[in-house]
């Protein structure tokens, strides 16, 4: 019995470096694509595009954002905005989408109701925002405009100091 004491030839150094480089490049591509997907899902300004305020409200200081939120919730309660009705409306749309044949008229009617409700809430938010801006001094408004401009340039990535 003879033992095979011969060593098998190893991978050449150049080939090993090529494989390591290829792996590094693949990981880089996966990271870039993953980051793009996550960024796209978040949207440029975050939130919902039909809602008033993402960049406008984000440019406020932390305290002003809290005040706006409280004022808006209070305005919704006073105007008897039916948030539960929104959920029911979406459920009706789901049922209409599943129905055969599709009732285009009923679906269109439900979408118009949703748009109307969104417009009412957006108008309320715009009114509160305008009141807040009108109450600012010229210097406060200029600083707010700077933060708004910065918010538009940087989107969600810019986090403002809570002390602003």
TrEMBL record:
Chain spans, region Disordered: 144-164
Source organism superkingdom: Bacteria
Family matches, as InterPro entries: Metal_resist
Entry's transmembrane regions: 17-38
The keyword Glycoprotein is annotated on this UniProt entry: no
Keywords associated with the record: Membrane, Transmembrane, Transmembrane helix
Biased composition (Basic residues): 154-164
Biased composition (Basic and acidic residues): 144-153
Pfam family of the protein (one): Metal_resist
Protein name per the record: Heavy-metal resistance
Taxonomic source organism: Shimia aestuarii
């Amino acid at each position: 019995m003879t033992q095979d004491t011969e060593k098998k030839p190893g991978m050449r150094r150049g080939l090993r470096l090529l494989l390591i480089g290829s792996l590094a490049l693949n990981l880089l591509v996966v990271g870039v694509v993953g980051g793009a997907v996550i960024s796209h899902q978040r949207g440029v300004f975050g939130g919902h595009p039909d809602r008033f305020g993402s960049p406008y409200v984000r440019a406020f200081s932390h305290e002003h954002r809290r005040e706006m939120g409280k004022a808006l919730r209070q305005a919704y309660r006073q105007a008897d905005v039916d948030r539960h009705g929104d959920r029911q409306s979406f459920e009706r749309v789901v049922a209409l989408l599943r129905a055969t044949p599709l009732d285009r008229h009923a679906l269109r009617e439900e979408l118009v109701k949703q748009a109307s409700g969104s417009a009412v809430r957006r108008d309320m938010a715009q009114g509160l925002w305008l009141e807040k801006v009108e109450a600012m001094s010229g210097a406060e408004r200029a600083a707010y405009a700077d933060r708004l401009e910065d918010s538009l340039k940087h989107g969600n990535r810019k986090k403002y100091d809570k002390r602003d």
